[in-house]
Amino acid sequence: MKRPMTHIRLALVIGCLASAAPVMAQWLKQPTAGVPRTPDGKPNLSAPAPRMADGKPDLSGLWQPAAILIGDLAANLPKGSVPFQPWAEKLYNERRANESRDDPTANCIVGGVPRSDAVPYPFKVLHEKDLVVILYEAVHSYRQIFADGRTLPEDMNPSWFGYSVGRWDKDTFIVETAGFNDRGWLDNFGKPATDKLRVTEKFVRKDFGHMDILITIDDPGAYTKPWDVTLPLILRPDTELLEYICNENNKYFDIIPKAGTK
Amino acid sequence: MKGLRFLIVAVVAMNTSIAAQWLKYPTAGIPRTPDGKPDLSAPTPRANGRPVLAGLWRPAPGLVGDMTRGLKAGETVPFQPWAETLFKERRANNSRDDPTAKCIVGGVPRSDFVGYPFKILERAEMVVILYEAVHSYRQIFTDGRTLPKDPNPNWFGYSVGRWEGDVLVVESSGFNDNVWLDNAGRPATEMLKVTERFVRKNFGQMDIEVTIDDPKAYTKPWSVTQQLAFQPDTELLEYMCNENNKYFEIIPKLPVSEGGSQRQ
């Protein structure tokens, strides 16, 4: 079993969603206001991107990460092209071999950046004048991106989400994040990061229904050079975030020891 | 519980000196006195003909732990007998079954009665509250929708808000039956309906008048008022409850009293 984590996660998630779906349909299917629609009332996801009062693209909306990068953030890169330092590659291989048993999110800790962008759960972007907030369904967490012109502080409190500032370059919102602790995983598969990690995310809203996040990983503590991936997002109309309470009946540690190691 | 709270205060205090450089960022757009200090007695800011509620707010410490300190003089909690028995058990056993000990969110209204600030964001279609406590959030839909008839039971419930003059009235229902109303452990059931009236009194002060209507746990609705203080020139911290949670190491070491411990 090459990707046991994925199977367990997906089975759990799909099982829960499938059993809950008919019950929650009534309250969950609230039409999203302000979504352009075709004559038959369906959301028109290829309509132009909405704009803020200042003319910049409005990034707001409920977004679902494309499935392709969930698990392996580098899934779209040629095999072997992640520029691991030797210790980081060794640790990564250990995590792949031991069913991710030391995964912080197994213990209901947030995924952080960029991992929370590449999970099978939607997130809601709230684009305010000087602040962009992301409400993650995953682990019911959130993140603030300050866009009021401040720069990254020099000596931040190390944290899981880091400290994020954003600025505009034409229609692209560029977010720089640093101030991480050294325990974050970059993705569900367990690519390591250190407190030298600096993440750049370029948010490009291509049209009403599609946005890309161009992610650059720059961590000289774990990688020999910066590397990039592109994460496509799709807008989710007429639905809502669910309340994901990870600590309620968490079975991770019941299941993982039984999965065996490889 | 008390020991644990002191521990938390100590950790936060330790962090402050380290964190000061990045945490003390001036809040933009707030009124200031000539010497640059925030003028918290300035009038309530307004937009679109209504008070602005947005900002970083801290619950007054008075009701943290025990929301009934906000009752009017002479009022008591109208417990149903089973609910009073359960409440006394929770007081006597050091809240060992407290859901937040397992890092589950406090829900409504408990998240209004905690020792941590929260940030209110106001948008055209909703109000969002980012809670420092357990790094959680809550959406209050203000787009005119009504409460759904059959929501998925959860911890924060489902919240809708509407304006009555200068007051934002928020109604929440759709709770599960595991919610505690406050840190002291007042019970609630799936019949719980909470009404919160947000009244901003001036720039620096806001009240939340909270009404508990849960006919299964209480014989009639009852209300308390929570006071909030605006927190200028600071920010939310990343509260990661699951990181090195010591609750279940400490609780068994605390003495268990018969028939309820003292109020905290």
Can you offer a commentary on this structure?
- The complex is a heterodimer of chains A (262) and B (264).
- Chain A has helices at residues 4-28, 86-97, 252-259; strands spanning 61-65, 123-127, 131-136, 141-146, 163-169, 172-178, 198-207, 210-218, 227-235.
- Chain A is α+β, with helices and mostly antiparallel strands.
- In chain A, strands 1-2-3-4-5-6-7-8-9 form a 9-stranded mixed beta barrel.
- In chain A, strand 8 and strand 9 form a beta hairpin.
- Chain A is globular, with a radius of gyration of 19 Å.
- The termini of chain A are close together.
- Mean pLDDT of chain A is 89; it is low at 1-24.
- Chain B is built from 3 helices and 11 strands; from the N terminus they run H-E-E-E-H-E-E-E-E-E-E-E-E-H.
- In chain B, the strands form 2 sheets. Chain B has a 9-stranded mixed barrel with strand order 3-4-5-6-7-8-9-10-11.
- Chain A binds chain B through residues 20, 23-24, 26-28, 30, 33-34, 107-110, 126, 128, 130-131, 133, 135, 140-142, 144, 148, 150, 153-157, 159-161, 163, 179, 241-243, 245, 247-248, and chain B through 15, 18-19, 21-23, 25, 28, 102-105, 121, 123, 125, 128, 130, 135-137, 139, 143, 145, 148-152, 154-156, 158, 174, 235-238, 240, 242-243.
